[in-house]
Amino acid sequence: MKSLIIVISLLAMLLIAPFLIPVPDLADTVNPRTLADNDSMFAEINNIDIHYKISGEGYPLIILLHGFGASTFSWREVMEPLSEEFTVVAFDRPGFGLTYRPIGEELKGFNPYSLEGQVELTALLIQYFGFEKAILIGNSAGGLTALETALKYPDKVLGLVLVDAAIYTANADSFLFKILASTSQGRYIGPLVTRAFLGKSRDLLNLAWYDTSKLTPDILEGYEKPLKADNWDRALWELTLARKPYDYSRIPMISVPSLVITGDNDKIVPVEDSVRLAKELPLAQLSIIPYTGHLPHEESPGKFLEIVMPFLRSLATMD
Predict the structure, then answer these.
(1) pLDDT tens digit string along 89-139?
(2) Are 285 and 227 in contact (CB under 8 A)?
(3) 140 Cβ contact partners less than 8 Å away, ≥ 6 residues apart
């Protein structure tokens, strides 16, 4: 009987203790619009205040989709060169950058953090800018959004550039995460987990870059700036909770020309994943950039543009 009482007491502690941990709102965060740059623009789509930057006036439209923990800042090295020939838009995917972060009751009806929600917003942005089609360039998790947009809206996607795309790693969650995401106790303390994870921006960038000597204080500041925006931690947790298993079997159904790019020293998405993706996409070609990590457009922008520009030009003449 005594042992049973001890077991019940321990179980009660495990169930109740997480709710005793305070999860206060972050101090010193502000409305994301107050963090805007001189060239920042905002568009309200599906009641979400989307932050974007636009450059160029050429055809076709190119939409840049950044990866996890990044923002429009990630495209700073390549956006202007691309815009010399094309209309280029980089936007902050929901949960990142300076795009508004709805939480709680605001998520009823439309969840911008889900893959479905991000695909819908991407398709609506093409329409918002007055184009029927766009070329999607997606890095890491942004590559998954680009891929799924091509599957759901094939008539809106002229081509894909998938840069170290996190396709096959989308479901690689740890046992700890699965516990956090599947229990009310875990979901309650989730924002504390995201604070701890993204609070070490330098560690994450060290993992993403091959040559970490290229990481300047300005780059670190650019990545940390969105962490001053209201609800960044809670929104990131909502995005994490919205993840679902991805059906890889549909990849061969994508019928648009695709370019798969990877750094040869990617420590986040294995090179083998990009090789596999290029094989499974029916109309894909593969390029591997040497001495480069997870972010070729940042770490090796010259080589990235050398590979991408001919592909984009060929698509522009096809349509």
Answers:
(1) 999 999 999 999 998 888 888 999 999 999 999 999 999 999 999 999 999
(2) no
(3) 66, 67, 68, 70, 163, 164, 165, 166, 268, 269, 294
What CATH number should be reported for the domain holding residue 152? 3.40.50.1820
One-letter amino acid for residue 182 of the chain: S
Q: Which residues pair with 62 in a beta bridge?
A: 88, 135
**Number of domains composing the chain:** 1
Strand-pair partners of 136: 63, 160
Please state, as a whole number, how many other Cβ atoms lie within 10 Å of the Cβ of residue 313. Answer: 12
pLDDT (0 to 100) of residue 212: 95
Determine phi and psi for 109, rounding to 5 degrees: 95, -40
Helix, strand and coil content of the chain, in percent to the nearest 5, comes to 50, 15, 35
pLDDT at residue 192, as a whole number: 65
Is 60 among the domain residues? yes
> Any bridge partners for residue 90, and if so which?
53, 64
Closest CA to 306 of 315, 296, 316: 296
So what's the pLDDT on residue 18?
43
Q: For the chain, which residues score pLDDT lower than 50?
A: 1-22, 175, 184
Place of tokens 């604070």: 195
Q: Compute how many other C-beta atoms are within 10 angstroms of the C-beta atom of residue 253.
A: 11
Is 314 inside any structural domain? yes
pLDDT of residue 27: 75
> How many Å apart are CA 223 and CA 73, to the nearest integer?
7
Report the DSSP pairing between strands 41-45 and 48-55. antiparallel
How many of the other CB atoms lie within 10 Å of CB of 103? 14
Residue 84 lies in a domain: yes
Alpha-carbon distance of 9 to 106, in angstroms, equals 38
Model pTM? 0.89
Boundaries of domain holding 223: 28-318
Say which residue the tokens 């502000």 belong to: 30
Residue 293 lies in a domain: yes
